[in-house]
Amino acid sequence: MTAGRGGGGSLSSAAHANAPLAVRMRPRTLDELAGQEQLRAPGSPLRQLIEGDQSMSLLLWGPPGTGKTTIASILSNQTGRRFVEVSAVSAGVKEVRAAIDAARADLVRGGEETVLFVDEVHRFSKAQQDALLPGVENRWVTLVAATTENPFFSVISPLLSRSLLLRLESLTDDDVRAVMASALADERGLAGAFEIDDAALDHLVRLAGGDARRSLTYLEAAAGAATSRGSTLIDLETAETAVDRAAVRYDRQGDQHYDVTSAFIKSIRGSDADAAMHYLARMMEAGEDPRFIARRLVVLASEDIGLADPTALTTAVAAAQAVQLIGMPEASFNLAHAVIALAVAPKSNAVTLALAASTADVRAGKVGPVPPHLRDAHYAGSKKLGHGTSYTYSHDAPFGIAEQQYAPDVVAEARYYQPKEIGAETAIRERWERVRRLIRGR
Question: Which letter does DSSP use for residue 172 in this model?
Fold first, then answer.
């Protein structure tokens, strides 16, 4: 547990010359905060809370390096409150209650308020989160709890209902560039002692992955490497050496993006799990949006696998949900899991062909009227029109399959879905052929 006095001992103002660059460059006001325009906008709840000096607890949800600790520090600084930090990794109920008791004593004794920052609150057990409630309910502390996981799953309802939930987004590449540019020039940072070329800057931006803290850590390491070489220029070779990561030639807006993505999908379609993993690693190392990768996997699961492996879509969707719930870098395991599962799965494009064929017929004008026995028969007068009068309820027929026409006359003989004898679709093919014959009376 750490503590500091608002205005003189909080995280941002207490940074000394030898503190890490990310600590020295921690924003002091909301206007210095990178990204998060929705939180910094005039009249936003966060700005009202800080500038209006209100007492309200916050729950900050977002990826690492997006400003959660910084917001707690700014709140402490600008409102003159004491800053106390509790880590959910190491603290227990005893430490939480001690922090709240100390805050209550300060409030009673001298009227001094406390910002209690709980990092990674999702790691707290229910009992530990319950221990926070008295301090929040009685406003003995202004709680700022940070989490990288969905709070609706990881934070108890009483704490959620008593806190203002703010969602933080990953920083854009431009946001990260602005953070590093500021650190290069600012007196608190590198004070203009170094220059960085475009290739090195692009490399560090990609490696940061939308994490401001990580970008400054890498920049500081690169500056140290340049110093050891007796240079004030941070070039690509220096940046690669400093962070021990080769620059991946990958432009998320250019040809490399499309070429690598194309090779990635075609490798999975071609069942080459090794090649697919290579392209996945290239995309992740280059900082590709994991949500984009997950979306492509969900599409591929239906487009190229379909019913040959009915679990493929479930796996892909689960990976996409994991990306949203967990975030990077941990979600990389979920993406790798899905990539390998989809690559080794049996392949069938029967679903894709069925969609293409049926769509082609509709676009060609083959949209005859719905057979009368299938039309809606729930309104007055429908029976007189013959709607539904000859409909056979499927569950009353043998095997639950009734012989009757479902498609309009113009496409009554169409065969859109033609399963292949691959994987689970082999059994589906056999059943579908039997069902089709029963439906059409053959």
Answer: P
